[in-house]
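Chapter summary example.
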Amino acid sequence: MMAADPSPVAELLTALATRPDGERFTATAPDWFGDRVFGGVVVAHGLDAAMQTVDGEMGPHSLHAMFLGALRPGPVELRVDALRDGRTFSTRHVTSRQDDRNALWMAVSFHGGEAGDEYQLPMPTRLPEPESLPRGEGPAPFDIREIGASAPRPDGTYESTRRYWVRTLEPVPDDPAVHLGVAAFLSDMTGTSFRPHNLGEWGTHTDASVDHAVWFHRPFRVDRWTYCDFHAMVNASGRAAVRGVFYDSGGRLCMSMAQELLIRRLEVPVHAPPVGL
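The structure predicted for these 277 residues follows.
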């Protein structure tokens, strides 16, 4: 009897997983986005490998990545070096290589978590409920409900350049590491929020992530609704900087990110698959 084809969510979890192989880790980058691997996959690989080298009492609280070169679909090799193992913090350095080329340099910091003061920026009010919005286009494992950018201000700037609700189409196993890996993938689903003058347009620019940072504030389930809100901060010198915040449906700020990208305008626009979703 032939096995049933895996679901899109199962394929996602398999694609984001890394496997120990002696003193290194290996992974298989998917071909979902053409000949360039989506940055969220690259970051998730590095985080997954790093998490496997740290005591289970500690969870990641931040990662800082530099994209050194495009990753192609196929085998990937990762190396994790322990930079520090303290009582409350541990730090790992991760490199991702393919065909003797460095693709990723990343530092991941882990913390045991402590009781302390609580404060956060509130989630915007009067948001439409996700079920009231039509399902949008996006990676197959996800149910995305687009809200759209906020209305432009009189000077042409935006408070938010992309807003949406998202969750996986199927339940995800009750493993915090699995949810963190998918969350890392989500952190790169910026759409065109970093280009306010060309929102929603693909093929007009070379869009390539240069560096990427994520902060994990609180655990959250990726199979429940998460509100994602992105803000373009600046376009200058052929680069863009964007930040994003991620709230669970209860209004808790659970994750935030910041990213810089190359946004080199193409002289002749081409039809190209999106690199950042």
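To summarize the output: Residues 80 and 203 are 36 Å apart (CA to CA).
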